Amino acid sequence: MDDSAIAVFTNRGRERLLSEGGSQAWALDPAHAARCNYVVCIQNRVSREWGEPTHDHRHAFLVGKVAGVSPSKEAPGRFLIRFEQYADINVPIEEKWRNPVRYTSLGALGINAAALSFKRARARTRERLADPEEVLAAAPKRGLDIVNAKKALAEFYGVPVDAIEIVIRG
Fold this sequence. Notes:
The chain is of the alpha+beta class and 170 residues long. Helices cover 18% and strands 31% of the residues.
């Protein structure tokens, strides 16, 4: 696996990233970000402390294996970089760049991919599943088409739409 990465300069701390299932709300090219194998979270303590930062400023503290990119529910037009596996690290990042998002590689950041020990992130808390009767009552009378069913399932499970397969047996 290549070590392509998207580095993000974030105020959010480790626990918040894990509870949200990834790093958000980024202005980025979702197709480009989804082609990266890793997301590297670098702590930003200059901005407000709203994100519950946990590490020293300008230290890479978490590497996630990119599981997909989806629209952020927090900010319209921005994206969530999802990960289901992560590795804790503590690597100072000396180089500075203007934007909080940068396409790079683990090697360029001084991170050895072979030395990382990945763990499965805890399952995110999902919204309460609706009562099937409520779903049926709210559904259009023509039913639900496959395109919209796949979109809804992908959003619910936090996976790309192309990861959903629906089989109809007659």
